[in-house]
Each structure stands twice: as C-alpha cells, then as structure tokens.
C-alpha cells in the first residue's frame, strides 16, 4: 500500500502561522507612529487652509473675519462676528491642544487682510509641539515645529 503525502503536517502549519504573526506584529508597531504623524500633519494642513480662507474672505468682503478657538469643545469657527452663523466650523482630534499665548482664543483679520494683533499659538499632539506665529502687517503666519 502506497501512502501519498498530500497535505502539510501540524508542525509546518504552526510554523507558518508563527511567522505570519511575527510579521503582523512588526507591521502594527510601525503603523502607530505613522498614524500619529498623519493626524497632526492633516490637522496643520487644514488649519493653514482655514486661516488663508478667513484672510481671503476678509479681503473679498471688505469686513473683519474672526477665527474663534473653543478648546474645551475641540473646535474652531471662522465667521464675521459672534452674532451671525459661522462661515466654517472645524472639529479636531481631542488629543490636539491649542493654546493661544498672546490672543484671547481668537484671531481677527481686518478688512484689508492684515491681522489685528500679532501673536503666537501653540499646537500640541502627543509628544509633538508646533508654534504658529502671526506677524503684524500683511497678515502672514508661519508654522514651526518645536
């Protein structure tokens, strides 16, 4: 009687599962830092675009535009003033903290696009901190990693 070997032994199957498990663990360990970096990068990119939108809105409509930060609710709004409905409202990750050092939780662009008051905002996420510096004059700002 001849016996054909058509399958894998239990040891071979366990060995393959072990190798696949080890490779999966390395993949998961490497994905977490990439995800964390992507969260803050995406937020900063959107934040920059929203600041530019507020400035352009102020110039086009020839009226002051305010960006109001509400850190307790993890959101900020862009609007003409506090009475009317906001033009834009953004919610962000609850692990991101925004601290205005020279502002009272708002940034105001004048009708000509210049900023009403220069200052600094610190944005933190996990172990990364960024500084947003608003310059007087043309309403320019710069995002720097600390």
Please bin the fraction of helical residues: 25-40%
Strand content: 25-35%
- Compressed to H and E, one letter per element, the order equals HEEEEEEEE
Question: Which structural class do you get from the secondary structure elements?
Answer: alpha+beta
Physical arrangement of strands within the biggest beta sheet: 3-2-1-5
Uncertain runs are none
* Rounded Rg: 25 Å
- Please outline the major beta sheet: 4 strands, antiparallel
Q: Which geometry do the CA atoms define?
A: elongated
Overall pLDDT metric: 86
Number of strands: 8
Question: Cα distance, first to last residue?
Answer: 76 Å
Instruction: Count the DSSP helices.
Output: 1
Question: Can you put this structure into words, describing what you see?
Answer:
The protein is α+β, with helices and mostly antiparallel strands. Helices cover 36% and strands 29% of the residues. The chain has one helix and eight strands; from the N terminus they run αββββββββ. The protein has one helix at 10-61; strands at residues 65-70, 75-79, 88-91, 96-100, 106-109, 119-125, 128-134, 141-145. The strands form two sheets. A four-stranded antiparallel sheet has the order 3-2-1-5, covered by helices on one side. The N and C termini lie far apart (76 Å).
Mind sketching the topology for me?
Layout lengths: L9 H52 L3 E6 L4 E5 L8 E4 L4 E5 L5 E4 L9 E7 L2 E7 L6 E5 L1
Q: Quick recap of the structure?
A:
The protein has 146 residues and is of the alpha+beta class.
Which characteristics define this entry?
29% strand, four-stranded antiparallel beta sheet, membrane, alpha+beta, 146 residues, transmembrane
């Amino acid at each position: 009687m001849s016996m054909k070997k058509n399958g894998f032994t239990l040891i071979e199957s366990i060995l393959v599962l072990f190798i696949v498990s080890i490779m999966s663990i390395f993949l998961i360990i490497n994905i977490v830092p990439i995800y964390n970096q992507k969260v803050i990068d995406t937020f900063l990119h959107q934040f920059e675009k929203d600041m530019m939108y507020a400035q352009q809105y102020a110039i086009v409509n020839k009226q002051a535009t305010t960006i109001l930060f509400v850190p307790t609710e993890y959101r900020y709004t862009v609007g003409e003033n506090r009475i009317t409905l906001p033009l834009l409202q953004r919610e962000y990750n609850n692990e991101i903290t925004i601290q205005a050092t020279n502002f009272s939780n708002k940034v105001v662009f004048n009708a000509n696009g210049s900023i009403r008051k220069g200052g600094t905002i610190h944005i933190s996420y996990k172990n990364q901190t960024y500084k947003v510096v608003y310059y007087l004059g043309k309403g320019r700002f710069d995002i720097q990693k600390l």
